[in-house]
Design goal:
Blueprint: H1 2-15, H2 21-38, E1 53-58, E2 69-73, E3 80-81, E4 86-91, E5 98-99, E6 110-111, E7 116-120, E8 132-133, E9 145-150, E10 156-162, E11 182-185, H3 201-204, E12 205-208, E13 231-236, E14 247-251, E15 258-259, E16 264-267, E17 276-277, E18 283-284, E19 289-293, H4 297-300, E20 311-312, E21 323-327, E22 333-338, E23 359-362, H5 378-381, E24 382-385, H6 415-436, H7 440-446
Helix pairs in contact: 2-6
């Protein structure tokens, strides 16, 4: 969580570069802690569930009141045996759970990693063949109710309450699906599996206009996999000081350290430019960064608060219609970034030339995580960052959510809470200013013009 917050507040921190580092950290950490404590910054922790989930429910399909199905999805990396598992239904405010899969699924039933399993009632009419079809109609309520799955030992694995009057959902109930429609779990990332699970049905499900029942033959990853190679994650080409302040940031999205000895940065194109060569014995750690910059970067960088480069060398990057390639010690191209109308690119160059003081950065696979989206199409993978965020080898960042805590509940917004937040934050800022004898923070908070650097 702290790494996530640091990334989001990086641009604020660099605007305060005239303050001593310790002072900045005190203010930022204290302010962020207060914001989280009062719930005004919700904790976004959409981890991949570690269990089978109910991914889609249809209570009245196109075939009528008994055209019903429940779809399961396994977001884990392991096959799970379903023998003896039960699908159960409870009415809107009932006290009894009724079995809808007889006395349990057959002993040999299983659901593969990242695969689906489809259960259906007797009069289900969908084109997708169910993995289990019940011998009778389910008679799920059209207004409100609950479905759940339990394992062979009677442990509840997942539950969905739908309709506003459902009395025992997870959190609040999911919306009631209209006739011919279904409710489906939201995706952690668009285009991937429906498996968002915050234990709040109203947050996790949405109406799906056209039901899409999926059986064992369907497979979808819960999250996009990170690239299997080092990527060019951010570049700064249109510097104020063109000779000392340009840089290229690399990121390693893999789970192992990569030896980058002898690797080179090659740049475009209309004239001959020197290539930066990474010296022997250098590596980029798993989920780590590596910063390559101009030879005079340590003293001439556009923003003194930027971290020092891991390597300073003579590089020259073209502002408009340029490109950069990362090559290994054998001369093989590992990654390419082209911008404007660059003739060298991946599929299609990023269709913008960055203006002065702005950078080009790779998109994140997942909001708040490392910049490493790589579809081999520069026009889709990159964006212009208004406040550049160079990272060196002292930094690391996960490419996708891993082992995050469950989401915290966000307290209801109230005037009292807001006033308390403002008061405590003001005290933190005042103490910092008094302790340092400086007024820089206060002037920063109120000034409307650009500061010395931005």
């Amino acid at each position: 969580m702290i790494r996530f917050v640091e990334r989001q507040l990086y641009s604020v921190g660099e605007r305060l570069d005239s303050l001593e580092t310790g002072q900045v950290k005190v203010v930022l950490v204290a302010a962020v802690a207060i914001l989280f404590a009062f719930g005004f910054i919700p904790v976004v922790a959409h981890e991949v569930p570690g269990h089978v989930v109910i991914s889609e429910v249809c209570i009245r399909g196109a075939g009528g009141a008994f055209d019903e199905f429940v779809e399961l999805y396994n977001p884990t990396d392991s096959e799970i045996h379903l023998g003896g598992w039960k699908l159960q239904y409870k009415s809107v405010n009932g006290t009894v759970w009724w079995n809808k899969a007889g006395e349990g699924l057959p002993a040999d039933e299983k659901i593969g990693a990242h695969k689906f399993f489809l259960l259906a009632g007797k009069l289900y009419t969908g084109d997708t063949i169910p993995d289990y079809r019940h011998y009778a109609n389910w008679s799920l309520s059209d207004d409100a109710g609950h479905v759940r799955i339990i394992d062979a030992n009677g442990n509840e694995i997942d539950r969905v309450g739908y309709g506003k009057d459902a009395d025992t959902p997870e959190g609040s109930p999911a919306p009631e699906p209209p006739e011919g429609k279904s409710i489906e779990r939201k995706h952690l990332v668009y285009g991937y599996a429906p498996c968002k699970d915050t234990n709040n049905n109203s947050e996790d499900f949405e109406i799906k206009d056209t039901p899409t029942p999926k059986n064992f033959s369907f497979s979808t990853d819960p999250l996009p996999p990170p690239p299997g190679h080092v990527v060019i994650s951010e570049i700064y080409v249109n510097a104020i000081d063109e000779y000392d302040s340009e840089w290229v940031e690399l990121y390693n999205p893999t789970g192992v350290s990569v030896d980058i000895s002898g690797w080179t940065i090659n740049s475009s194109s209309t004239a001959t430019y020197a290539n930066a060569t990474i010296t022997s014995g250098k590596s980029i750690k798993a989920h780590g960064f590596y910063l390559i910059a101009d030879g005079g970067f340590s003293t001439g960088k556009d923003n003194p608060s930027w971290p020092d480069a891991d390597l300073e060398d003579e590089i020259a990057l073209i502002n408009n219609n340029g490109w950069v390639q990362l090559k290994n010690s054998d001369g093989e191209t590992i990654d390419t970034v082209g911008w404007g109308s660059a003739p060298v690119n991946e599929t299609l160059s990023f269709q913008k030339n960055p203006s002065e003081r702005k950078s080009i950065e790779r998109k994140s696979l997942y909001d708040g995580y490392a910049p490493c989206q790589d579809t081999n199409n520069n026009s889709e993978d990159l964006f212009v960052r208004d406040m550049p965020t160079p990272e060196n080898s002292s930094r690391s960042m996960n490419p996708v959510p891993v082992n995050l805590p469950p989401p915290l509940s966000v307290p209801e917004f109230s005037l009292t809470g807001l006033l308390a937040l403002i008061g405590i934050t003001s005290i933190v800022l005042a103490v910092t200013v008094l302790a340092s004898g400086r007024e820089k923070i206060k002037s920063y908070l109120y000034r409307q013009r650009e500061d010395e650097y931005w």
